[in-house]
Fold this sequence. Notes:
Strand order of the largest sheet: 1-2
Helix content: 55-70%
Radius of gyration: 23 Å
Distance between the termini: 53 Å
Strand content: 5-15%
Structural class: mainly alpha
Number of helices: 10
Amino acid sequence: MAKRKKDNVVDTKKEEKKDEKVQLTSQGEQFEKALFVQRFLAFLLDIFLISIVASIISYPFLDIDSIQKLNESSAEVMENYATGKINQKEYFNESSTISYELARKQGVNTLIIIFLNILYFVVYQIKNNGQTLGKQILKIRVVDSSNRDLSMNQMIFRALIINSILLDMISFGVLIFANQSGYFYGVSFLAFIQFCILSVSTFMIMFGKDRRGLHDLVAHTDVVRCDVVKEMKTCEN
């Protein structure tokens, strides 16, 4: 009797564990939730794609010579600090000046990245059945966690949080209206916030019971696999 009871408990736990991995879509099909490695690789591919496209578009509008000189100056300052030619205070002042000037020189590129992120992660993704190009390659997609059709608001909330669109917009505003010191501290604080968001979301996706990050919880979404379903009509475009 005790053994039978123990077996029943084990079976129940297996069923619960299995249910945690399954997502039922609004079309009535079941999907397994995406693995962390799939989501991570798709994220890297999408960021790389956005960076390449933004660089190509912004290139004619940038002062490449000035940007290159500033980068060389930044490397020189780091070398001087490493070799002891300048102290920590001097390093901080010179680095913040160069960073501020670089940010102003690359302002057009920042605007283009913000625009592309909105266009790609919000508009394109919802029009493409919850998939970016990275998600298509890794065979995963975003779905509504309540079995409804995805809405534009959900994709906006996800992108604002995980794709740092909101923080990028605030950073650009700080660049325009703040002085050098204000920009340095403001952007450093925003970068820390974004790091915390990414770290917490990563931990939640890797070890959380339902494999959802902060952006998934706020937007009421899940990310599921398409490659484990025999009938994948909902993953076709």
